[in-house]
Design a protein that fits this description.
The complex is a heterodimer of chains A (113) and B (114). Chain A is an all-beta fold and 113 residues long. Chain A contains no helices and 11 strands. In chain A, strands 2, 4, 5, 6, 9, 10 and 11 form a 7-stranded mixed beta sheet that branches. A 4-stranded antiparallel beta sheet of chain A has the order 1-3-8-7, with no helix packed on it. The mean pLDDT of chain A is 93. Chain B is mainly beta and 114 residues long. In chain B, the strands form 3 sheets. In chain B, strands 2, 5, 6, 10, 11 and 12 form a 6-stranded mixed beta sheet that branches. Chain B is globular. Classes of the chains: A mainly beta (113), B mainly beta (114). At the A-B interface, strand 4, strand 5 and strand 10 of A face strand 6, strand 10 and strand 11 of B.
Chain lengths: 113, 114
């Protein structure tokens, strides 16, 4: 079974704090993704990575950055957290030969006060 | 640009009745289409996908989906609903932007009443 883990299920931070969300997958997948999920908006892609040290912007990258130093780990960074970044953050991974099928972690519910 | 529409925020169905969750898409070229399910307080789980071939795709938990190119639809179906099917369902389409990524719909909450 594919396993995607996220460092925290719930996180509470203050505005202007730097926030790190970590994601690890154990299946040697090339591709990793960060989404945020908001009611009525579905999932929106923030960033994705198709190889170590490679990244590509998604639909809503503003206010976020990412890091992929190792194949199994993909980090999402909020440089200066704001209240409008309060959301559920979902990490996913997948491999090229599975035609875009993605496997999701349990999510991190981030609250920025 | 690619997009997915799920026109119903919520679908209510009685246990034992057939269910349909609707999805339409807009994409240039041939689409890759997906359904995912999200149970309360959990991440998304893959249900099924259409890549090519037979228009009727069978997936996990007895779900199936029918690809209709002329209507640009990919509706999710199940012949007999269970209370345990109650969850949030997402349709998604694959896009090619150098590397693949999924575009998701807004989600449809399925409520199955006993």
């Amino acid at each position: 079974d594919v396993k995607v883990t996220q460092s925290s299920r719930y996180l509470v931070k203050r505005t202007r704090e730097k926030v790190f969300l970590e994601c690890v997958q154990d299946m040697d997948h090339e591709n990793m993704f960060w989404y945020r999920q908001d009611p009525g908006l579905g999932l929106r892609l923030i960033y994705f990575s198709y190889d170590v040290k490679m990244k590509e912007k998604g639909d809503i990258p503003e206010g976020y950055s990412v890091s992929r130093e190792k194949k199994e780990r993909f980090s999402l960074i909020l440089e200066s957290a704001s209240t409008n970044q309060t959301s559920m953050y979902l990490c996913a991974s997948g491999r090229d030969r599975e035609r875009d099928t993605q496997y999701f972690g349990p999510g991190t519910r981030l609250t920025v006060l | 640009a690619q997009s997915v529409a799920q026109p119903e925020d919520q679908v209510n169905v009685a246990e034992g009745n057939p269910l349909t969750v609707k999805c339409t898409y807009s994409v240039s070229g041939n689409p890759y289409l997906f359904w995912y399910v999200q149970y309360p307080n959990r991440g998304l789980q893959f249900l099924l996908k259409y890549i090519t071939g037979d228009n009727l795709v069978k997936g996990s938990y007895g779900f199936e989906a029918e690809f209709n190119k002329s209507q640009t639809s990919f509706h999710l179906k199940k012949p007999s609903a269970l209370v345990s099917d109650s969850a949030l369902y997402f349709c998604a389409v694959s896009r090619y932007t150098g590397r693949r990524a999924l575009t998701f719909g807004s989600g449809t909450r399925l409520q199955v009443q006993p």
